[in-house]
Amino acid sequence: MKKFLLLSSAFILSASAAFAQIPYMEEVKVLGAISGQGMACGSSRYTTFEMLARAIMLTKAPDLETMNKAMYAYNREKANAYMAKQMDGFYECPLIVRRFDNQEIFNITLYADGSLKMPDGKVIKPVRPYDASQIYDSSAPEIQTAQNIYNRSQKRALPQKITPQISSLKPEARPRYENAIIETNASVSAAAPAASVPSSVKHISRR
Questions:
Q1: Using one digit for the tens of pLDDT, what is the confidence trace for 70-91?
Q2: β-strands 123-124, 116-117: how paired?
Q3: Which of 53, 136, 143, 152 is the most buried (most CB within 10 A)?
């Protein structure tokens, strides 16, 4: 429940005027956490969010060094949120998707040169213009890659099955139920809900 409340506070930040006033790195971390939750829960608007979040990161970056640090922080928060949602059994995913799909971020207009028109009408121009159509490849197998990483981490976390040692060439006979092999390390990881990912994102305005 605590994790969901933290996510709720992140949604409040992203949907209010305060979102534009928080420090750049904190904004990037919030965007990463929300992106990871949306990806794990299978929001159909995930690819659009990812494109706009990356545009915010690039456009607002004051310099290249800060942008590189921001990209690392964004991806780390995104991965952590994705893993956490898997581990808590996709708790409250239907509610999360509803809130994810109705965020204020979707009212931002992204222009081809990387400029952003915010919901309040304010236009933010990047320090260095860039080709906005190149910032996110929606056809990349990102979700499956994240799922594979999660599956490997879960496999490493499971206890290893102990191979019985032979203590005698002629072991004493035991009842059949004691000789039964009990599997103790069956896979317990759940597959993520399949996200509806469009082949391309067509939300960039050409003015």
A1: 999 999 999 999 999 989 998 9
A2: antiparallel
A3: 53
